[in-house]
Design goal:
By secondary structure, this protein is α+β, with helices and mostly antiparallel strands. It contains 13 helices and 13 strands. It folds into two domains: about 130 residues, Glutaredoxin; about 270 residues, Alpha-Beta Complex (Cathepsin B, Chain A), CATH 3.90.70.
């Protein structure tokens, strides 16, 4: 047998063994649905129209009340020289050589998975396979942002919840060298600032926050654990949607990176753990019974994790990158649907997108006991706008202070400047059927 052939066989066996380490639900997807619409895209590039149409598919399928509506997976097909380890199903579809983005409608029969429709990404066509039509995006005025405080001083608002510990100066160089900048992702394309207004017009904050399905409220200094969790849940919400959603346990992360309930933690430690071990599902997740291991959603810092938990945590690993410039930050959040794990004012948060504001700033909202005054904040209670001027960009983030904090009932806040941070790309190995292509 030729040496190269033997080496290839060894590598394939090693890859198969690595993929089986993740003990997730079988055989199709976490929701156990017999039908999946799968669309593959390039990671790190894509047009505004492509991203808009993918969101249209996500929004229509997630809003459907028909239990027979298929799941929708919007997944990155990674290049060979990237460090991601995609599931065999994703690799099989990518190997078909279709021009991305491209979609397949897959049904599972007694004889195995079968492709019943396929074609380029087109929201109207793809949704017709499911008997649906595109929906109007969530209402929102792209020229304004919800009336919530800007640049919140977290340490002054609720110091007992602020557990972000900056990396010591001595270690920063080593930590930075250990993580690749997102611009090193093969084929990555930043989005020039001149193009930002048209992206913001398509994606107001109401739309960006749509895939935020799980809003938690800290009870200890576990903000690094919560924001790391949001950094995985956010992309997975867009990738897999409501029909295959899994809520994650921030405490299963903080249990290892914190020393006590109030000690706080380093973002670098959370990133290392996501890259090597992963994070567990929460025991109150809609699909918790589908997973072999789960952990508490909020409390229980000292409670031991279940024996053998690593096999489930492996399903929620991530590849880790770093972003430190505005155009790349904009691209990874607005186009790629990823998050930026960042820390400031002694608190860790999860950057989720950019909002273009063309009005004047509103006064700060009164606070109560270190929290924003509870109120319902939607597009109906937006801040007043003056005559349109040059746009100001607001950097939106997801906090972990409960549904009565911030905007939209999802703990959403805004900063007036960009902060650098980690970017987590979830490793895709949830069950995806490999087709019979005949």
């Amino acid at each position: 047998m030729p040496r190269n052939t033997l080496l290839l066989i060894v590598l394939l066996i090693a890859a198969a063994l690595a993929l089986t380490q993740c003990q997730g639900p079988d055989p199709v997807d976490p929701a156990g649905l017999p039908r999946v619409i799968l669309c593959l895209r390039h990671l790190g590039r894509g047009t505004l129209d492509d991203v808009h149409q993918a969101w249209q598919i996500r929004e229509a399928i997630d809003a459907s009340a028909d239990p027979d509506t298929p799941a929708f997976f919007w997944l990155p097909a990674t290049a060979k020289d990237q460090r991601l380890r995609p599931h065999g199903g994703v690799a099989a579809y990518a190997a078909l050589g279709k021009p991305l983005p491209y979609c397949w409608d897959i049904v599972v029969t007694d004889t195995g998975p079968r492709i019943i429709h396929e074609g380029p990404l087109d929201a109207e066509q793809v949704l017709s396979w499911a008997g649906l039509v595109p929906r109007a995006p969530p209402a929102g005025d792209a020229s304004t942002i919800p009336d919530v405080p800007l640049d919140v001083d977290f340490a002054a608002e609720a110091p007992e919840l602020c557990g972000y510990r900056p990396t010591p100066e001595l270690c920063r160089g080593m930590e930075q060298a250990a993580v690749r900048n997102i611009r090193e992702l093969p084929g990555f394309e930043p989005i020039p600032k001149a193009d930002w207004p048209k992206w913001c017009d398509r994606f107001p904050i109401e739309r960006l926050a749509g895939p935020v399905y799980h809003t938690t409220e800290q009870v200890m200094g576990s903000c690094v654990g919560h924001s790391a969790m949001n950094g995985i849940e956010g992309p997975r919400g867009l990738m897999f949607g409501r029909r295959a959603e899994t809520w994650l346990s921030a405490i299963s992360m903080y249990h290892f990176i914190g020393r006590s309930p109030g000690s706080g933690a380093f973002i670098g430690d959370a990133a290392d753990r996501l890259a090597s071990i992963g994070i567990l599902p929460a025991d109150n997740s809609p699909d918790a019974s589908d997973w072999r291991h789960a952990h508490q959603d909020v409390g229980g810092f000292y409670d031991a994790l279940p024996a053998g938990y690593e096999a489930t945590a492996e399903c929620f690993r991530a590849e880790v990158y770093y972003v430190d410039d505005e155009e790349a930050w904009f691209a990874v959040t607005m186009r790629d649907g990823l998050r930026v794990h960042l820390g400031r004012s002694q608190h860790a948060i999860s950057g989720l997108g950019v909002v273009c504001e063309r009005g004047r700033l509103a006064p700060r909202v009164p606070t109560q006991r270190g929290r924003l005054a509870p109120r319902v904040l939607t597009s109906d209670s937006l801040r007043e706008s003056a005559t349109p001027t040059a746009p100001r960009y607001r950097w939106a983030y997801e906090n972990s202070w409960g549904t009565d904090w911030g905007a939209l009932g999802k703990s959403i806040g805004f900063d007036s400047r960009m902060y650098p941070g980690r970017v987590y790309v979830p490793v895709v190995h949830d069950g995806i059927p490999i087709p019979s292509v005949n």
